[in-house]
Design a protein that fits this description.
The protein has 834 residues and is of the alpha+beta class. It is built from 29 helices and 21 strands. The strands form five sheets. Strands 3, 4, 5, 17, 18, 19, 20 and 21 form an eight-stranded mixed β-sheet that branches. A four-stranded parallel β-sheet has the order 7-6-11-12, covered by helices on one side. Strands 13-16-14-15 form a four-stranded antiparallel β-sheet, covered by helices on one side. Helix 16 packs parallel to helix 22.
Length: 834
């Protein structure tokens, strides 16, 4: 790798690094002890182009904008209903040379193989416990040990499919394992997000330094889960089991599911029949062969584990024990997360693998061993007291800054229940630069590397993994406490492996059976996404049409004014009663403007925008990145007003922005979404909401004293944005018969009642097989009235038109209820098993 630094780059990043300093006693990831740049950083400086203060600030702003637009979040449980925190990413990567990575990767793979062997013994013959190689209290007294899993033989014989190790580098430059995550390890999705962002900003450096790609890791994960499950001749179906949108790492669940092509599910989406797991889909029950779970053990099965949890799947543990579903990772593997095992791993590596443990752990003593406790007590100034098991919810206690009395009290607490505690040596973390406050600041960093089983007894590591850095205090690395992240680059000595996640070697039967699974929950959320998006746009159009006329009250006659108020009350733009606004145009205007922003009330535009975005987030994996960005941007359109109520002009601006955003979202749905069942349900939701809105608005005008009043008809044309269309077709004054034909019966007008009826008929006929019965007949009957002689009759008879509009509203309600009961309700298991 070239180490020559061009003058332009030297004047940028190299100059900034001159003033960068790491606290004494910490390893410097950038400089050698002699003060020179490490070789990988010399290469980075020479290839990354000019990265001065201005460029880094601009890059950091671009990163923040990308994260906000794409909704990259990490939920922090600060309280019920607390908002998701945006993911934080630094522009500068952590860079590992090939010579650093090779032994690190080898040691991690060895450790993963070792823990796999330990898991097989602990849940099998338990020879290690009988021989004393692992103290029985560390297993049988561990709350993570599941007796219900003992004796089980998972499909393929693998217990640990995915494992993550947290690593820290001490002042001596040695990486040590400080944490193990086995139950539901996270990090790979955020590492992927970091790569997509930073590799675009530092494109030249990323390419020229030959950074290892992440795709091979994800391809291995994909193959492990698709090939390892009990397929029995069927095309494998893999799901990712998530606790849901309120989990702190839900972004990762959605992004990984989308990237790998897995179905994202929650516990209620799955059911167990005859010891097999099925996904509740809109077409019936579909067999699930493999589950990548992001639920901890306790929450996975309320029948055998936590009965108070609604997150899991009743019977899942038995289905896994029967060998009918692969669960990654196997139940009970959380017992291996205890750091109390670290001291026992070196001899276990000799016994089980016949190898010396390559990668050290942070020095750890389990207080349950008297000799270990005595040794640790001889060096209290170096130690940190931590719980051995996660159920003991106590914060780490650093003994070094304590006085003698406090240390004694801390150690006395350990002696009361020694098997519950460990003592670890304190190691100052290595530091790397982060760009903050227009300068480089030194922050402690830790590395999380995720590995996946290759199905042949070995593991593949995610190159570099996820680097996390400390918050403003500089030393505590914790995402929950405001830490940030860094992209991790592992450099290659040779050509970088290129790999696509597009499937290869498909059989004809795989293609024929590849219809995507739409879970009942996902179908329902798409249905309501369509309804909420359309409802929000309708409300915005109603607000615009009313507020634009209210400054001149003469634009509404008395009869029309009452109809407009009724419409606003009906569709949630107002609260109260009709009498509250009688002759009070100023009150009406003020309440409508206030309602634009009030997200706490169902009448507000802000509330409906919030519901649209929230519903969209539950099916994020089914939306294109562009569609999600538009939805995410929509959520920021209707913010708090400037000033007491923001004023009419500001409200109109927010309304216009909302309409434009929703039109763009609708356009992307039409042009980008695959015409599968999910798209159909989304479309049915939109069409039902639009049909309900148009017939209710026409019904309000048809119900006034003089429905042929020009003011009322002009308002309708403006509401549906059809003034221009009307003028181009009818050169004379506004006529009731022409307006009703255009808005109620014209099948070429995409906002007319007839158009919604026709499109609904097409969508409903293409839905999965099911008996929608009478609602479909009513839909067809309503459609027939819009044609030929029926159309002429409706335009010639006001009462017939009113009856038609009323029947359309009833049909919309009945069809909505029928779709919900047939496809989204599984109270009765009448669906066929696929």
């Amino acid at each position: 790798m070239s180490t020559e630094t061009p003058p332009q780059a030297a004047a940028g990043l190299a100059a900034l690094l001159e003033s960068y300093r790491v606290p004494e006693g910490h390893y410097d990831e950038v400089r050698t002890p002699a003060g020179t740049l490490r070789p990988q950083w010399q290469s980075f400086v020479s290839h990354a182009g000019p990265l001065g203060a201005e460029e880094l600030t601009r890059a950091q702003d671009q990163i923040a904008r990308y994260i906000n637009e794409n909704g990259v979040t990490y939920h922090v449980y600060a309280g019920a209903g607390g908002p998701a925190r945006a993911w934080v990413l630094d522009a500068l990567p952590l860079i590992l040379s090939p010579d650093e990575w090779a032994p690190l990767e080898s040691g991690l793979r060895q450790r993963a193989r070792l823990l796999e062997r330990v898991a097989a013994d602990v849940y099998g013959p338990q020879e290690l416990l009988a021989g004393g190689q692992i103290p029985g209290a560390l297993v049988l007294g561990n709350p993570g040990f599941l007796r219900a899993a003992h004796g089980a033989k998972p499909p393929g014989g693998t217990f640990i499919h995915v494992i993550a190790f947290d690593l820290a580098r001490g002042p001596d430059g040695v990486w040590r394992v400080v944490g193990t995550r086995v139950q539901a390890p996270s990090g790979s999705g955020y590492a992927l997000a970091n790569r997509l962002i930073v590799s675009r900003l530092l494109r030249d450096g990323f390419r020229d330094l030959r950074v290892h790609m992440l795709a091979p890791f994800f391809r291995t994960l994909q193959l492990t889960l698709t090939e390892g499950g009990p397929k029995e001749g069927e095309t494998p179906h893999v799901v990712l089991l998530s606790p849901g949108p309120y989990n702190e790492t839900y972004f990762e669940h959605a992004s990984v599911a989308r990237y790998l092509g897995f179905t994202l599910v929650e516990g209620a989406d799955l059911t167990v029949r005859d010891d097999c797991v099925y996904l509740k889909t809109v077409t019936g029950l579909r067999r699930v062969h493999s589950i990548l779970r992001r639920l901890d053990d306790d929450y996975c099965d309320p029948l055998e584990l936590r009965s108070d949890s609604t997150l899991g799947v009743p019977g899942l543990l038995q289905a896994w024990r029967a060998g009918n579903v692969l669960v990654a990772n196997a139940f009970g593997t959380g017992a291996l997360e205890t750091p109390a095992l670290y001291g026992f791993l070196p001899p276990l590596a000799k016994r089980l693998l016949g190898e010396t443990l390559e990668l050290p752990s942070i020095p750890t003593w389990w207080a349950g061993e008297a000799a270990a406790l005595d040794e640790a007590r001889s060096r209290p100034a170096e130690l940190v007291v931590k719980p051995a098991f996660p159920d003991l919810r106590t914060e780490p206690q650093f003994l070094a800054p304590m006085n003698e009395a406090d240390r004694a009290r801390a150690l006395d607490a350990v002696r009361t229940a020694p098997e519950r505690y460990i003592l670890q040596q304190y190691i100052p973390l290595s530091h790397a630069p982060v760009w903050q406050g227009a300068r480089l600041e030194s922050r402690a960093v830790m590395l999380r590397v995720v590995l996946v089983s290759d199905g042949r007894g070995d593991y593949r590591a995610l190159p570099g993994g996820l680097t996390r850095s400390a918050g403003n205090d500089g030393n505590v690395v914790s995402s929950q406490q405001g830490g940030s992240s860094k992209e991790t680059w592992v450099l290659s000595d040779g050509p970088v492996e290129r790999l696509s996640l597009l499937p290869v070697g498909l059989r004809p039967e795989d293609v024929v059976q590849s219809r995507p699974a739409i879970s009942s929950r996902a179908g329902e959320h798409l249905f309501w996404l369509g309804r909420y998006a359309e409802r929000t746009q309708n409300l915005a159009r109603l607000l615009r049409s009313v507020l634009s006329r209210l400054p001149d009250a003469d634009d509404f006659g008395s009869a029309l004014y009452e109809a407009v108020v009724r419409a606003c009350l009906r569709h949630g733009a107002l609260a109260g009663e009709l009498e509250d606004y009688a002759g009070a145009a100023q009150l009406l205007e003020r309440n409508l403007v206030e309602g634009v922003y009030d997200a706490e009330e169902r009448r507000s535009l802000a509330f409906n925008v919030e519901q649209t975005v929230r519903t969209g987030s539950t099916v994020r994996e089914r939306l294109s990145p562009d569609n999600w960005r538009l939805l995410n941007r929509l959520g920021r359109v209707v913010g708090a007003p400037r000033g007491p109520f923001g004023g009419l002009a500001q409200a109109m601006e927010r309304i216009d922005q909302t309409i434009v955003s929703l039109v763009a979202i609708s356009g992307l749905e039409m042009s980008h979404m695959t015409r599968d069942d999910g798209w159909r349900f989304l479309g049915v939701g939109r069409l039902l909401e639009r049909l309900h809105f148009v017939v209710s608005m026409l019904g309000e005008v048809c119900g006034v004293e003089d429905p042929r009043d020009a003011q009322a008809l002009d308002w309708l044309l403006d509401l549906f944005d059809k003034t221009g269309s009307y003028r181009s077709r009818f050169l004379g004054p506004t006529e009731w018969v022409a307006v009703m034909d255009l808005l109620a019966l014209d099948t070429h007008n995409p906002r007319s009642a007839a158009f919604q009826l026709e499109k609904l008929g097409g969508h409903v006929s293409a839905l999965p097989e099911g008996d929608l019965g009478e609602p479909v007949a009513s839909l067809q009957a309503a459609w027939e009235q819009c044609r030929d002689a029926g159309r002429l009759r409706l335009l010639g008879d006001l009462e017939a038109m009113r009856a038609f509009l009323g029947s359309c509203a009833v049909t919309a309600d009945r069809l909505s209820e029928a779709v919900n009961l047939l496809y989204f309700s599984h109270a009765e298991e009448a669906s066929a098993v696929l």
